[in-house]
Amino acid sequence: MDKVFVQQLLDRVRSDYNKIAEDFSRKRSTPPKIAEGKFSADSVVAGEKILDLGCGNGRLFELLENKGIDYFGIDNSEGLIEKANKKYPIARFQVADALNLPFLENYFDKIYCLAVLHHIPSKEKRLRFLQEAEKVLKPSGSLILTNWHFWKESKFLKAILKYGFLKAIGQSQLDFKDIFLPWKDSQGKVLAERYYHGFTRGELKSLVKKTNLKIKECGLWRYPAGHSNIYIIAEKPVKSV
Fold this sequence. Notes:
alpha/beta, seven-stranded mixed beta sheet, two-stranded antiparallel ribbon, 7 helices, 9 strands, about 35% helix, globular
């Protein structure tokens, strides 16, 4: 993918989330179900430093605020960070770039990255994203990574086929498995067309394996409503002396 177009997509993702920040925060006002289920907050330990990477409106904090942990939430959407600060004033939120994290190396015990990586265009930038997470993770620290699973739902498959066809005939700069999905308000008005990459489980595993992170678990987690996520739990190895 052309570097200029990659940057345009990154800027678009940020702009789109600023556009929908109000509606997003109204519709996504409770903690992510996957964090209540598969990745229970019971796994965190008091005193741990936790990074919510791509925190959005900060809703994960609700599950962690009484755990005695040191929480940091970052997102590149100023609108969503504004919402997070307003709703959770005791937490630390910051506008920051996940491709250039403003933290010391080996700083966090756990990093939660829930439904974020699929918004990063190009193989190179997605690898950079994971390398940045690895850099700020402590040895033996864990990365909890989830992405939407598009391969069981017809509306997603139709979008993948549509944009794949446009790519094949030279009418799209997107990579294969890249799509745009509309965000609609309660009246059905399209507020934004959000960029996504449709990961397969094998593709996500292969990407993580290009870092030094070690995959401990990989699978699918299904929401009660039927949607599913690909998840990976990976660990940063302790360097041998």
